[in-house]
Specification:
Distance between the termini: 48 Å
Shape: elongated
Pfam family, one: CT_C_D
CATH superfamily of the largest domain: Cyclophilin-like
Number of strands: 13
Strand content: 25-35%
Oligomer: single chain
CATH class of the largest domain: Mainly Beta
Keywords: ATP-binding, Hydrolase, Nucleotide-binding
Number of domains: 2
Number of helices: 6
Protein name: Sensor histidine kinase inhibitor, KipI family
Strand order of the largest sheet: 1-2-4-3
Helix content: 25-40%
Radius of gyration: 20 Å
CATH topology of the largest domain: Cyclophilin
GO molecular function, one term: hydrolase activity
InterPro entries: CT_C_D, Cyclophilin-like_dom_sf, PxpB
CATH architecture of the largest domain: Beta Barrel
Length: 237
C-alpha cells in the first residue's frame, strides 16, 4: 500500500489543516499548486504555510464532503508519483521583486556578530544574502511580513537569544532558514542585516498585500547615501 505523504486534521468546526510531508521534493511548489487548485471553490478561505494549508469552509456541505475534497487534491499534488511537469504546469503565475537594501553598519546591527560566528567577513554575508534568489514561502507575524527562503546554508542561524523591543520599518533580517523585511516598526527577534527604504505596508491606503505565495525576491545593495535619497521619495513594493 502506498504511503500517504499528507495528513488532514480538524481545526475547529469549519476548518482543516492539510499538512504535507516536510521531506517531499518540491514542497513549496506543491503547496502553491494545492492553494491554486483549492481556490477553484471561491468560498474557501485558505492560509498557506511552508508545509501546510489552513482551510476554512462554509457549512453549506458536510464535513465529510470537505474532507474528501481536500484529500483528493492532496493525493494529486502530494503524491510522489506526481511528475514535476504536472506541478510546473499547475504553478500559478509569480511576480518578481528586486528590492534595494542598505547594509551599512548603522542598519545592519548584527552583521559583525554574525560574521564572527560564521567565520565570514561582513562583505561575504552581504554578498551571500544579496546574490540569492528567494521565494515567498509564507506570510504572517505582521501585515505585509513575508517569510522568504531558503537562505544559503552559511547564513542559517537561530533567532537572537534576546529579541529587540523595536526595530525600524524596512529592517531586513534573517533567522533559521528565512529572511524577511519588517514592514512596520515592531519588536524583532531576527538578526538585522540592513534596511530597505521601500514601503511594504500602508494602512492608510488600499496597499495592504505586496506579496503572493510563490513570488520571487532578490535584494541588491545600496549605499547609505542612496538610502537617504530613496527615503525622501519612497517607493512601494
Amino acid at each position: 500500500m502506498q504511503r500517504l505523504h499528507w495528513q488532514i486534521k480538524r481545526a475547529g468546526l469549519d476548518a482543516w489543516i492539510l499538512s504535507l510531508d516536510p521531506h517531499l521534493p518540491h514542497l513549496s511548489l506543491r503547496i502553491l499548486c494545492l492553494q491554486s487548485a483549492l481556490q477553484s471553490q471561491p468560498w474557501l478561505e485558505i492560509i498557506p504555510g511552508p508545509q501546510s494549508l489552513w482551510v476554512r469552509h462554509p457549512f453549506t456541505k458536510s464535513a465529510e464532503y470537505w474532507y474528501t475534497y481536500l484529500a483528493e487534491h492532496a493525493q494529486r499534488y502530494a503524491s510522489t508519483q506526481c511528475p514535476l511537469a504536472t506541478l510546473e504546469a499547475a504553478r500559478p503565475p509569480a511576480q518578481q521583486h528586486l528590492i534595494p537594501v542598505c547594509y551599512h553598519a548603522e542598519y545592519g546591527l548584527d552583521l559583525a556578530a554574525l560574521a564572527q560566528v560564521s567565520q565570514l567577513s561582513c562583505q561575504d554575508i552581504i554578498d551571500l544574502h544579496s546574490q540569492t534568489s528567494y521565494q515567498v514561502l509564507a506570510q504572517g507575524f505582521a501585515p505585509g511580513f513575508a517569510y522568504l527562503g531558503p537562505l544559503p546554508p552559511e547564513l542559517i542561524h537561530p533567532r537572537r537569544a534576546t529579541p529587540r523591543t523595536q526595530v525600524a520599518a524596512g529592517s531586513v533580517a534573517i533567522a533559521a532558514e528565512y529572511t524577511g523585511i519588517y514592514p512596520l516598526t515592531s519588536p524583532a527577534g531576527w538578526h538585522l542585516l540592513g534596511i530597505t527604504p521601500w514601503i511594504l505596508f500602508d494602512p492608510q491606503t488600499a496597499y495592504l498585500h505586496p506579496w503572493q505565495l510563490g513570488d520571487e525576491v532578490r535584494f541588491y545593495p545600496i549605499s547609505a547615501r542612496e538610502y537617504c535619497q530613496h527615503q525622501r521619495h519612497p517607493s512601494r513594493l
